[in-house]
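Supplementary Methods S3. Complex input for the pantoate-bound model.
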Amino acid sequence: MQIARTTEELRRLVADARRAGHAIGFVPTMGNLHDGHYSLVRIARERAGFVVASVFVNPTQFGPNEDFARYPRTPDADAGGLAQHGCDVLFLPSVETIYPFGAQASVSIHVPVVTETLEGAIRPGHFDGVATVVARLFNLVQPDVAVFGQKDYQQLLVIRRMVRDLAFPIDIVAAPIAREANGLAMSSRNQYLDAAARERAGAIRATLEAMRDGVGAGSPFAGIEAAARAALEQAGLVPDYAVLRKADDLGEPAPGQRGGLVALIAARSGMTRLIDNSLL
Ligand code: PAF
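Predicted complex, serialized as structure tokens:
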């Protein structure tokens, strides 16, 4: 695996791969990689002969009171893991490479509608930061295919909309959610949890399953959502939301709708926010 820190190094490596006839797969990350990330690399590998992963903790997607400063940074372990999992190039850009005019003075991309609810409502500006950095990374890497985890379901929809609206010639692939043994969705933020909190957080997955059962049994959505919030509270979590939405745009579903739904949960365990979802 080669490491590129500048646009020039990256472009040279990608151009060589293209000349050798390879399609380019891309996995953007913020580092502190776990098996969930490596599953994205594996999927990229299946679809492209040459895989680039980026590690960049993007300042513009963190709110002023969020965990940008303490976000776990493990560059050596990340490089070792990516090399082992068949990544060809690790792109490690500086803030200046991503935001040449400074993070606060950059062009910003706003994807309307789908960003106005759930995570977008609770974390104002978050998805502008995500869309902006991903667009910039797409222009730097110029991949044919890019892989994103389904755990960040709303992020996935935001990226798909941006790609369609701005006509990026990139195939966006969703990777299934990787889980711990107790069902907790893998996330870099899980390491903020002690063993007991990790165990309790398994209730998120169990609650999503109960929501699925409720929909299958034809229960009213409001009752399913109320029961889900109660179950999360019972497990010692503080729910931000536990909702059923339309899977394609996160709009409110029609009362009788049974297909095309997604159940989404965000809940706090102490200072740590956890999100998860299930397509129904
Ligand atoms: O999902 C993430 O890790 C980040 O939001 C992403 C897509 C790498 C953009 O910074």
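The longest helix spans residues 126-141. The CA atoms of residues 25 and 51 lie 5 Å apart.
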